[in-house]
């Protein structure tokens, strides 16, 4: 059943089209592109800040685990930054295959002794920045949970492209670990 109005539109050939014109689509796409370009740097900074926070949390939890193990086992447990899972470093650079390794005793493990001494090699995300242990190579906990010697306390500084991204993991002489 056609109404009089529908029949008249069909007779004259005028059919009302719905949708966007090509010009409207191009303008909308251009505006969306400009907004996305403006948001990208902020998103990248946010992503890098989250990566640094994740690495700080990883170092924090690994240090807590090492301290707890030293108390539980009644022996010394050490931890350090590494690129190869064995050698301790003071600094791991941005973009490196960094790890935080923890091991029993105070002597760095070798490939041969890792099976006996090694506890864990935890990967760290260094895509956003470098990690520096303040001129030190190793943190060592003794059986009471305190650091082995007074010079063993220190700060892991995780540095990004701006100081607003930086995080610090601080180990006190008492063995207490905090993130700042």
Offer a quick outline of the entry.
The chain has three helices and nine strands, in the order ααβββαββββββ. It is 36% helix and 23% strand.
Can you put this structure into words, describing what you see?
The chain is of the alpha+beta class. It contains three helices and nine strands; from the N terminus they run ααβββαββββββ. The strands form two sheets. It has a five-stranded antiparallel β-sheet with strand order 2-5-7-8-9, with helices on one face. Strands 4-3-1-6 form a four-stranded antiparallel β-sheet. Strand 7 (154-159) and strand 8 (167-171) form a beta hairpin. The termini are far apart. The model has no long low-confidence stretch (mean pLDDT 88).
List keywords for this structure.
180 residues, 23% strand, five-stranded antiparallel beta sheet, four-stranded antiparallel beta sheet
Topology diagram in text:
Blueprint (H helix, E strand, L loop, with lengths): L3 H9 L9 H52 L3 E6 L8 E2 L6 E6 L9 H4 E6 L6 E3 L5 E4 L12 E6 L7 E5 L5 E3 L1
Antiparallel strand pairs: 1-3, 1-6, 2-5, 3-4, 5-7, 7-8, 8-9
């Amino acid at each position: 059943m056609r109404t009089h109005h529908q029949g008249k539109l069909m007779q004259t050939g005028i059919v009302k089209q719905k949708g966007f014109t090509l010009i409207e689509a191009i303008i909308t796409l251009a505006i969306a592109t400009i907004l996305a370009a403006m948001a990208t740097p902020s998103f990248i900074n946010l992503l890098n800040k989250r990566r640094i926070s994740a690495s700080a949390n990883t170092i924090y939890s690994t240090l807590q685990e090492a301290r707890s193990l030293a108390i539980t086992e009644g022996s010394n447990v050490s931890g350090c930054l590494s690129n190869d899972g064995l050698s301790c470093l003071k600094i791991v650079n941005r973009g490196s295959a960094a790890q935080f390794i923890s091991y029993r005793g105070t002597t760095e493990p070798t490939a041969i002794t890792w099976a006996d001494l090694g506890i864990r090699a935890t990967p760290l995300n260094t895509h956003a920045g470098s990690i520096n242990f303040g001129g030190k190579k190793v943190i060592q906990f003794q059986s009471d949970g305190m650091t082995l010697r007074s010079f063993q306390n220190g700060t892991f500084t995780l540095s990004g492209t701006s100081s607003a991204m930086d995080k610090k993991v601080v180990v006190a002489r008492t063995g207490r670990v905090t993130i700042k």
